[in-house]
Amino acid sequence: MTFLRCLLTTLVFLCPLLRADEPPLRIAVTPDSLRFTWPARVGAVEVRELPLHTSAAEGEGRVLWSGAGSEATVPRFDGARDRLFAKFELRADGKALGAPQCVTDFSALPRRTNPLGSLANKKGIACLLDVEDGKALGFGQSNQNINIGWLIDWQSAEPKLSFEFEGRKIGLRPAAVAALDRDLQALNAAKMRVTGILLNYVQTTTPRTSPLVHPLTDPKTITAGPAAFNTATAEGVFFYRAIVHWLVERYTREDAKFGRIGGLVIGNEVQSHWSWYYLGAVEPEVLLREYTAALRIADLATRSVHADFPIYVSLEHHWTLPASEDRTHGFTGVEVLEGVNERAKREGDFPWHLAFHPYPEKLFEPRFWNDKSAPLRFDAPRITFHNLEVLPAFLRQPRFLFEGKPRRIVLTEQGFDCPPGPDGELAQAAAFALAWKKVQALPGIESFLYHRHVDHPNENRLLFGIREHDGSANVNGVGRARKLWDVVQKAGTPEEEAAFAFALPIVGRKDWSDVVATKFDPPRALKRETGHVVFDFVAQRAKAQQENVQSVGQRRIGPPDEVQQEALQEHPKPKGRARLTYRVAIPAADAKRCLLTFDALLNNAKSNGAAFAIEMDGREVFARQLKGAERVPAEINLAGFRGREVSIAFIVDPLTDPAYDHATWVAPRVVLR
């Protein structure tokens, strides 16, 4: 009976502790202490303090408190170091009881609650060059790029300007601070709410020793400049949390002495990280780990100062469509949101929000109402203004709510190109009119910051500007107003209907009623690869040895409103068999199935037939003769080839006539499942 009683007692404790909807540990912060609470249990527990940086070793933490009961209080500060910026683990009998947790309860702190700017006017601008012109256009919001590498002076022993954080002096560059103050003061005086875009520009000349450079970021291979924040080292996390804390402390003052910021977007277009949040060639899991850490640290730094200072995840329009063919360069927006949400809830949920960029599917085509890849489905390849209503609906799903409320959504960067020709300005202006009507009809979207005020001469020939560039050597030269100027100026005013009337026939509407849908189509049952891709034959097509091949090319297979599959199209010469041969290292993969997967497709109904075959080290492992437009899926078990480098040949035989033999290998990969 004694054993049974002990077992029941243990189960009574573990059941409430391990509930999926209840964290193992709750942490509240006060001005001078941290208070831990956990489900009551019999026996001793210990609370361990762990560092926030992501490269922390497993045993790097230390015991902060031990004993019995269901709560504990410890000093908030360890000397000058603030334990707010740590995570904590509850342990019993040498084992962790759930994931490490972060501070989530700030209610006992005397934080600021003053307004950070009005959201009554959703109309805003990105890259504003003339505040007076912005006032004439009626903007109620703007953005402000904030480069931490420009602000922080980490090299000077005696910086000319500095602030103190956790007992250390942090150097600042006076010119950068003065410029930021000047911009924010001007925008505040113009009564514009400002969303800060927090960036970390790394140049090719930036030393690897900089605490702002993530260990996985090689400055010599940087692409566009914006890089990941250094969340991997203790020194990197220190500088990052210090500058975020300084920003919110300085720019949320009630008197707005230095100007005001109403929120921070953390990084830029994360699913397209190779170009816009450069960490290097990393798997999505690594990017999500580091980016979620940056969000968490920003939450701790901002919510400890101001009670309602939002931080935002940054995404562009790729939704279920990967932002890159190479998953180490980019992946999908849905994966970012699902990954951030799961990690946030695992370690203590916090109020992250979303900054989205719903550019048209083709940047040089403003007529987004024709976008084929933006259907009204949660699994749409892209989210553009065409299906914008999908975005708030997706985030209203219960698993994404924070304290029962949807995450906030702001549109901080999106614009419409002005195509050449006499109708170009009309198409651009009509695109803004329809987009504005949709944003106004969606209460879940708080802002529409148009990109950009003036054309930039170095923006890949894109002409997004409300005004033209003036053609001078000055990249910020303000030129002639386009048709768009008048449309933007009238948006949100009593003159809107008259000013927007020209757009109705252009966008194919009789009026502006029902501009957003309330019902969506169900997701499509698509073939998805859930395993780990060891070798992608399409991505590695340059490595294939060609024999008797007339042409080989990359194709995308599937309708435009689905995520199309990458494929190799192998066209044989008139006589003989065409071969594409790869050398592939097959992993040992003891615990997983290793497979060669593909679909064989004769991608033209006019073909009179062709034969497909796969050879591995000269042995035929697949052979099928297909009719025109016929498609056959295949999986080949590679258990017999584990731990070896093998030759894999994709073979096509035109049989009697090679005409229309568009022989296609759809999504050919070696995968582990």
Written overview of the protein:
The model is unreliable at 1-18 (pLDDT under 50). α5 (234-251) packs across α7, α7 packs across α8 and α10 runs parallel beside α11. This protein has 3 domains: 2-96, Sandwich (Immunoglobulin-like); 123-507, Glycosidases (TIM Barrel), CATH 3.20.20.80; 532-672, Jelly Rolls, CATH 2.60.120.200. It starts with a helix and ends with a strand. It is globular and about 85 Å long. It is built from 13 helices and 33 strands. With 673 residues, the chain is an alpha+beta fold. 21% of the residues lie in helices and 27% in strands. The longest helix has 20 residues, at 284-303.
Feature tags:
33 strands; Immunoglobulin-like; TIM Barrel; 673 residues; Jelly Rolls; 8-stranded parallel beta barrel; 3 domains; 13 helices; alpha+beta; 27% strand; globular; single chain; disordered N terminus; 6-stranded antiparallel sheet
Short description:
By secondary structure, this protein is α+β, with helices and mostly antiparallel strands.
Low-pLDDT segments: 1-18
Mean pLDDT: 93
User: What topology, given as strand order, has the largest sheet?
Assistant: 10-11-15-16-17-18-19-20
Please give the CATH architecture of the largest domain: Alpha-Beta Barrel
CATH superfamily of the largest domain: Glycosidases
β-strand percent reads: 25-35%
Determine the number of helices (DSSP H or I, runs of at least 4 residues).
13
- Report the principal-axis shape: globular
Q: Work out the count of structural domains.
A: 3
Number of strands: 33
